[in-house]
Specification:
3-stranded mixed β-sheet, globular, alpha+beta, 6-stranded antiparallel β-sheet, about 375 residues, Extracellular Endonuclease, Chain A, about 25% helix
Length: about 375
C-alpha cells in the first residue's frame, strides 16, 4: 500500500467515525446548552420533579415550583360581574375521561397543593356519594390553612353569614362521589364553596355541582364529565380560582366555569392564607347584625351536611306578620320548600332565611315542608 493510499484510507475511516458520532448526537445524546457559573444556570426540564427542585434550591427551585401550576389562567373577581362568585367562560374543555363512576385525582405538587380532579359521574356514583358517611377532614390541612377565623360577612340578599371565612372546599363534592382526601381539598372561602345566595340561586362551586345533580336526576342513564382545576399564581398557597368543566353525555350541559376564591370585604394574602377585613365590610356587617337583632349572636352552628363546613346561624329577614290577610312563611336561599315554623329542623342548616307570602313562595316553585307542614 502506497503512502497516498494509506492516507486516503485513514481519512475515510476518520470521516465515517465523525458521521457516526454526529448521528448519535442527533438521536441519543441530550442537547444541553453550556452551563455558566451559578445555580440558575443548571439545565433541567421545566417539569422536573419538585424534590429535584428542592435539591437545586434558591431561585431555580421557586421557578420550577411555579411551573407546576396548571396551565390555565384566572381573572380577578368582580362583585359587579360575578356577585355569586362564578362566571361561565364558554364550552367545557374535555380531556381524558375516566371510567364511568370513577374519579382521578392529581398528585399533590411540590408545595403540597391539590392540582385537580377529574370525574365521570353517574347516577349510581352520585347516589353512593350522597349516602356515604362523611369522613372527617380535621386532620387534613390544605395549603394556606391555619389562619382561619370566624367572621361576619354581609350577603347581597341582606342576610349575614357568621362563621369561618375558609372552608375545606372539595374539588369534587361528596354528593358527586368525591372523597375526603388531601388531593380533593383546597382552602376556599365560604363564598367560593357555596356562593353568596344571590337571588336564591346556587353559587361558587355549588353552581357547577347543582348542574350535575339536576341533570343526572333527570337522566339517570347518562354520565357527566366533571373536572376541577385550581389555579395558583406562582408559588402561592391559595388558589385564585377553580376552573370547572362540566359536560353531560348528551351535551345539553356544556360549560367551563371559573369559580372565584374571594370574599366580599376581605383582603386575602394568597401566598400565606392570612386575611384582613376592610372597614366598609365591617360596617356593613354590623349594620345588618343590628337590624336583625344579632348583636349578641354566638359562634357558628352545626356542620353543613353537603359541604362539611360551619353553617351560618341565621334568622329570617323581614317580618312574620301576614300581608294583606295572607299568611307568611319562611324560605331559604336554595331550598325547595317553605316553612311556617322557624324552629323547624328542616331549617337547621339554612344559610339564610326570609319571610314571604304563601303565594310568593308558590310562585317560586316552593312546596310545603313535609316536617312542619309549611
Amino acid at each position: 500500500m502506497t503512502k497516498r493510499t494509506s492516507y486516503l484510507w485513514w481519512a475515510a475511516i476518520t470521516l465515517a467515525l465523525l458521521l457516526l458520532m454526529v448521528g448519535c448526537a442527533d438521536e441519543d445524546l441530550p442537547q444541553t446548552a453550556p452551563a455558566s457559573e451559578g445555580v440558575a444556570s443548571v439545565d433541567r426540564p421545566a417539569d422536573a420533579p419538585a424534590d429535584d427542585a428542592e435539591e437545586v434550591g434558591g431561585e431555580l427551585a421557586m421557578e420550577m415550583l411555579a411551573a407546576e401550576a396548571p396551565a390555565v389562567s384566572h381573572t380577578p373577581w368582580s362583585e359587579a360581574d360575578s356577585p355569586n362568585y362564578y362566571r361561565v367562560l364558554g364550552a367545557a374543555s374535555v380531556g381524558e375521561i375516566p371510567e364511568p363512576g370513577t374519579i382521578s385525582y392529581g398528585e399533590l405538587d411540590g408545595r403540597g397543593r391539590a392540582t385537580g380532579a377529574v370525574a365521570c359521574v353517574t347516577y349510581d356514583s352520585m347516589m353512593a356519594g350522597r349516602s356515604r358517611v362523611r369522613e372527617g377532614t380535621t386532620d387534613i390541612e390544605p395549603t394556606g390553612w391555619g389562619h382561619n377565623q370566624e367572621v361576619d360577612m354581609a350577603m347581597p340578599d341582606g342576610s349575614i353569614y357568621h362563621g369561618l371565612l375558609f372552608n375545606r372546599s372539595h374539588l369534587v363534592a361528596k354528593s358527586l362521589g368525591g372523597e375526603e382526601v388531601a388531593a380533593n381539598l383546597i382552602t376556599g372561602t365560604r363564598t367560593q364553596n357555596v356562593g353568596a345566595n344571590v337571588n336564591g340561586s346556587e353559587g361558587g362551586m355549588a353552581y357547577a355541582e347543582a348542574l350535575v345533580r339536576d341533570w343526572l336526576e333527570a337522566h339517570p342513564e347518562g354520565t357527566v364529565y366533571f373536572a376541577a382545576t385550581p389555579v395558583y399564581e406562582g408559588t402561592e398557597l391559595l388558589a385564585r380560582s377553580v376552573i370547572v368543566d362540566v359536560r353531560t353525555s348528551d351535551r345539553s350541559v356544556d360549560q367551563r366555569v371559573e369559580v372565584y376564591n374571594a370574599a366580599r370585604g376581605f383582603e386575602i394574602d394568597y401566598a400565606t392564607g392570612e386575611f384582613s377585613v376592610t372597614e366598609d365590610a365591617r360596617e356593613a356587617a354590623e349594620e345588618i347584625r343590628s337590624s336583625l337583632g344579632l348583636a349578641a349572636l354566638g359562634a357558628a352552628g352545626a356542620a353543613d351536611e353537603e359541604r362539611d363546613v360551619a353553617a351560618a346561624p341565621v334568622l329570617p329577614t323581614g317580618s312574620s306578620a301576614s300581608e294583606g290577610g295572607e299568611r307568611k312563611v319562611i324560605i331559604t336561599g336554595s331550598g325547595r320548600a317553605y316553612h311556617h315554623d322557624e324552629t323547624c329542623r328542616g331549617l337547621s342548616q339554612a344559610r339564610s332565611m326570609r319571610w314571604v307570602t304563601v303565594s310568593e313562595a308558590e310562585a317560586m316553585g316552593r312546596r310545603p315542608c313535609k316536617i312542619c307542614g309549611g
